[in-house]
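Board notes, transcribed. Complex of a protein with (R)-mevalonate.
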Amino acid sequence: MKITTVSAPGKLILFGEHVVVYGYPAIVAAINRRMAVTVTDSLDMTDHIDTGIVLDQRFVKESLILFKKKYNINSYITLKTSSQFSDRVGFGSSAAITVATIYALATHFKKPMTKDVLFDLSYQVVIAIQKKGSGADIAASIWGGIVYFQKNTPVQKLDSTINEIIVGYTGIKASTTKLIDKVSTSYAYDPKTFEKIFISISKIVKQAKKEIVRSDENKLGELMSENHTLLKKLKVSTVKLDCLVKYACEFGAYGGKLSGAGGGDCMTAIAPEHAKKTVKSALSKSGATVYILTIETEGVRIEL
Ligand code: MEV
């Protein structure tokens, strides 16, 4: 029996969350936590879907509907996912599972697909479900490495020796859609102030792009903290996220920020080698689940 397995990495937003929804750039890293999708032919006249620890099946189901419609597929499949992270931690599980599902189907049914087409289809799926979103997480899952992403612009992969990132998960699952709505409501209420914040963040993103290529961790840490201060002004941070960022810095990190939509989920920090252990234990003692993640250079791929 023909078995097709495809995997795609999760993501961590390094700079520019929220403003990326409004057309400004962001920098997103693919992380060494992957989501795998295996497709086989169904033995009966129905599709079978088993997403394991990923509780939200909407992205897989929508991907399957879209793919079958686009390529006129009338046969049935069995699809199983296996994941190196849960959909609670905010590592971009929806994007990774969507990308892996569509690419697994394309491979299984021998439909050659470029990365750009994969991006467009995945983005359609995410928008059909979430209604909002930039697609930055999809780009990281497809291209891998560290990507400079801006809507309607070709994705740029950034070369860097930066590899390890500290992440603290607050234990609080946040709704990306609600937080995007929150920013858009505040923006509508006070466009001048918010526009200014957006522009300040986008300047940080552009500076961070240069520092990533220079692999200057110290500068990147400082820029992360500056980005965090502005995210606080967008009112998407929480007391817990602020505390974790503060502790990371007090215990030796170059800097840190919330990562993703905010409202819970994760923060991230960059620290010098000698301070990593101390930062990690300070974050753990403050109640965070700590991950030391590395950048995953490879994006979506077929598993042999
Ligand atoms: C969520 O991980 C990041 C946001 O910028 C939303 C998006 O880019 O789609 C808040």
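Residues 13, 17-18, 20-21, 133-134, 136-137, 176, 180, 260-261 surround (R)-mevalonate (CB under 6 Å). The chain has a mean pLDDT of 96.
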